[in-house]
Amino acid sequence: MLFSLTPSPEIQHLSLYSSENLNALLFVLPALFAGFKNYLPSPSKEQILCHRPRGLQCISPLVQSVEETPEPIPAKIKGHIPKWINGNLLRNGPGKFEFGNDKFNHWFDGMALLHQFQLAHGTVTYRSRFLQSSSYLRNSQHNRIVASEFGTLAMPDPCKSIFGRFLSRFEPIQPSDNCSVNYVLYKGDYYVSNENIFMHKVDPETLETKEKVDWSKFIAVNGATAHPHYESDGTTYNMGNSYGKHGSSYNIIRVPPQEPGHGDTLEGGRVVCSIPPMDRAKPSYYHSFGMTENYIIFIEQPLKLNLLKIITSKLCGKAIYDGINWEPQHNTYFHVVNKHTGEVLPGHWCSKPFVTFHQINAFEERGCVVLDLCCQDEGTSLALYTLQNLRRSGEGLDQVRSLTLLPQNPGQELLLCSKAGLDGMENVWCTHENLHPEGFEKVGGLEFPQINYSGYNGRRYRYFYGCGFGHLVGDSLIKVDVETKNFKVR
Ligand SMILES: [Fe+2]
């Protein structure tokens, strides 16, 4: 997931009560609050080892089209790679930003380029291939953009008659199969995914495109996130939306491991639980979700998909991302689902509005669910990641950087679940604790968190790694100790 989503000024630690009984919850709350205060250490006084850069280097070369490198080439190594690290590091991201005279508008629109760094006995080779998606093949064949993407509306064929071009505006936007977000695993097979109805099975050794898979042929969903969760037996959990005559639903999906009789691809997959959105005409956008040993935690945030705007976007000459709106008049809601039974716990957990793209980890402890997130107070940053902005230089780029990284509500205090049931709607108000030391937001943000997944996902853990965002794009590697809040920055 090399090029995915936005930097984040805040890293937060939220506690949700997984008790199924609100009365019990109210009763136990003060004790838990006290207990957690002891569990959580005071913010570290350690000096932060990075500083906010002044005067940005132009990052335009990072968002230019490149040629693929299908045959492995040796990589230059700085430092030393231990000989015991062997295997393929796979990454995915946009690698081609125009066809003919047509240019994509947004960072997420570029054609998927699959990368492989093969580590063997202290050496590294690199190779890359463009995903042979229908979008890529059609754009290449016509030498212009004929498939709409997140931030780019494909223009009608200029060879069509005026009447034909007019009518083409009434055709719905076809979902793109340009899967540029992440590699995912189902039944031991590697796929690349974006967040809509298609995935592509790929060969992790050669990076060749093998098979296009349509989610709706297996499960009643219109797509799934590019950040599923995995259990040790190979079971995969994910979330995806479905759209029916009554509006949209959020669905938790379970795909079994490879087993006799289940076939491959997504066969045997099923919806574990469906959750109605607060507003079925405006479901929330979500990019990932949390999973503990027993629960799925879904965050319904006020970053809204306006379905009417999206459906009519082509008619209005707009791209899909024009239909995504930040609506901070709404709170952020948390849905906690028993992943074994599919039961949604009856509590209503909510917090002040914030937006999150990547969740770090979640775990159960002392009757609570603890959820760690990279999040932002403002949900407007998607619009900043246009290619036009990313290719600015000098002061123009500084302005974009400042808009993106400065948090609106910096320096929030160490707080946990503070009150419950006070608004007459049995809502439990959740507050947070910053995982970063005081002042960290002044040097930038942190995103793309990674933990030792197989060892600690869903369990209490101590460390995670992430990209530091002193610039508009990641420019450092940060290791965070969530217990002491000490950071190491490289
Ligand atoms: Fe992502």
From TrEMBL:
Record field: catalytic activity: lutein + O2 = (3R,6R)-3-hydroxy-10'-apo-alpha-carotenal + (3R)-hydroxy-beta-ionone; (3R,6R)-3-hydroxy-10'-apo-alpha-carotenal + O2 = (3R,6R)-hydroxy-alpha-ionone + 4,9-dimethyldodeca-2,4,6,8,10-pentaenedial; lutein + O2 = (3R,6R)-hydroxy-alpha-ionone + (3R)-3-hydroxy-10'-apo-beta-carotenal; all-trans-10'-apo-beta-carotenal + O2 = beta-ionone + 4,9-dimethyldodeca-2,4,6,8,10-pentaenedial
Principal location listed in the UniProt entry: mitochondrion
Sequence positions that bind Fe cation: H227, H287, H358
Cofactor(s) the record lists: Fe(2+)
EC number from the UniProt entry: 1.13.11.71
Any Gene Ontology biological process: carotene catabolic process
MF annotations from Gene Ontology: beta,beta-carotene-9',10'-cleaving oxygenase activity; beta-carotene 15,15'-dioxygenase activity; carotenoid dioxygenase activity; metal ion binding
Recorded family membership: Belongs to the carotenoid oxygenase family.
Entry protein name: Carotenoid-cleaving dioxygenase, mitochondrial
Record organism: Zosterops lateralis melanops
